Amino acid sequence: MRLALAAAADAATRGEVPVGAAVVRDGRVIAVAANAPRTLHDPTAHAEMLAIREAARIFGRERLEDCDLWVTLEPCAMCAGAIAHARIARLYWGAGDAKGGAVEHGPRFFTQPTCHHRPELYPGIGEAEAGGLLRAFFRARR
Q: Where are the alpha helices (DSSP H) in 45-117?
């Protein structure tokens, strides 16, 4: 989670919403990414999506069933869908997201009968630091 939090802090310095993600396999970090929709002019460039894409590229396969994803913010519906399609084994996240989250909030993506893969879920890891980054970022913009 430390690497995801560092990526989130870096995103904030670039004017991006401070969210970071890391894909880990057997304790080894495979990919780390930060939010970049503004930088890349790509609405799908969420930290989770970028980290999953990079890990899939590194392994040369679309399924990451032996990998974990660490992310600083509860994933949105788009990212939850990518997590399911990638077959991520375990999902760890920091801050909950009552407005845009789709795991514990909103559609609760992984509880839907149409969801074909459900990772193990571990919320609240690094929650205080992740939440603090987000609050500071949005406070500075108001």
A: 47-59, 77-86
CA 141 to CA 100: how far, in whole Å?
Answer: 19
Q: Which of 56, 108, 50 is nearest to 77 (CA)?
A: 108
0.85 surpassed by pTM? yes
Inform me whether the pLDDT recorded for 142 exceeds 90: no
For residues 124 and 94, give the distance between their C-alpha atoms in angstroms, rounded to a whole number.
5
Backbone angles phi, psi at 28, to 5 degrees: -105, 130
Judge whether 48 counts as a catalytic residue. yes
What percentage of the chain exceeds 70 in pLDDT?
Answer: 100
**Tokens 């990451």 appear where?**
64
Sorted by sequence, the CB contacts under 8 Å of residue 59 that are 6+ apart come out as: 30
Buried b (16+ CB within 10 A) or exposed e, 96-106: bbeeebbbbeb
Q: Which of 16, 48, 62, 127 is catalytic?
A: 48
Q: Which pLDDT value is given to residue 79?
A: 98
pLDDT in tens, 81-105: 999 999 999 999 999 999 999 999 9
What whole-number distance in Å separates Cα of residue 46 and Cα of residue 38? 10
